[in-house]
Amino acid sequence: MNALVIILNNFWMFFREMIMFLPLMFVLVGLIDVWFPKEKVEKHINKESGIKGMFLVVLLAMFQAGPLYGAFPVAALLWKKGSSIKNIFIYLGAFSTLKIPMLSFEIGFLGLKFTLLRTLFTLPLFIIIGYIMEWALKDTDFEVKTVEKEKAKKSIKV
Amino acid sequence: MKTLMVLTILGIGLSFFKDREKTLQGIRKGLKMFAGILPALIYILILVSVLLWIFPKETISSFLGYGSGWISFFVAGIIGAISLIPGFVAYPLANVLLKSGVSYQILAVFITTLMMVGVLTLPIEAKYFGWRSSIIRNVLSFIAAIIIGFLMRFFL
Question: Residues of A numbered 20-49 whose beta carbons fall under 8 angstroms of chain B's beta carbons: which are they?
């Protein structure tokens, strides 16, 4: 009985705070989504290389949302348009750690200092990962395959 | 948290001023997303509440707090790598863990592997990039997460 009281107490303490803040934060995410739709962002993809191309893929990734596997089809699109191996993986790094909707959650729940520091440390690291990937894969038959939706669905069922 | 609330309200105001229809559409979309994650969030909060009853705050902070060593970095990294928790649920969860005595550095490792490393989604990743490059990317990302943890320890 005592245990239940403790558990319920814990739960209520957490839940009360979430229910106050989360709806507003999601409204912000919804607004970002409406003002920066995926299609509009994807239109800006091109095969710019060098620092400018790197900057563009990071920027592109920041304005997207969703889980990492949602970034794979976009990476395939980048590849098709002639992006370098390095920039493909920099895109994946930025997508997984620098999405603006996620950053707003991070600031809200872990603080601005934490978010700034983590972002500052992560950015050079995934750029290095991009360079290592290019170095490791440039002499192989590496390619990003475009997986069709039908095919992807089927494989998940199996 | 308060600054963010002010920003959101400013954002809604600005958006409403520019395009009423779009703003309503965005608000609806956001609330729909909120309703979508609510079951997962409640589930995780129940789980954490029970875990906090089993392991008191002192126990958690002795294993995952500031004094903890690199083994806890590794464990936090592994948990993040194999979990499939949506980011919108992960941050509220991280906040609860922080209040329960888990250190910022451990949370940085957990959050980073959660977002950058995907063991369960590896088959999907391999379909696009091939197994070889997918495995290299995941291993490198895991190492990066550990480095980020150590850097956070010095600066936070």
Answer: 21-35
Residue pLDDT, tens place only, B39-78 = 988 998 898 889 888 888 888 887 787 767 788 999 999 9
Nearest CB among A26, A30, A118 relative to B152 is that of A118
| Residue A155 confidence class, pLDDT cut points 50, 70, 90 | very low
CB < 8 Å to B5, chain A: 21, 24
Q: Closest Cα to residue B110, out of B87, B128, B127, B140?
A: B87
Residue type, A35: W
Decide: pTM greater than 0.90. Answer: no
Same domain, B76 and B119: yes
A–B: how many Cβ contacts below 8 A?
205
**What range does the domain containing B27 cover?**
1-54
- Total domain count for chain B? 2
> Is the CB of residue A87 less than 8 Å from the CB of residue A53?
yes
Same domain, B87 and B132: yes
ipTM for the complex shown: 0.86
Interface test with A, best of B137, B151, B154 (most A CBs within 10 A): B137
Contacts of B130 in chain A (CB under 8 A): 142-143, 145
Whether B112 and B140 map to the same domain: the answer is yes
Of B126, B144, B142, the residue nearest B134 (C-alpha): B126
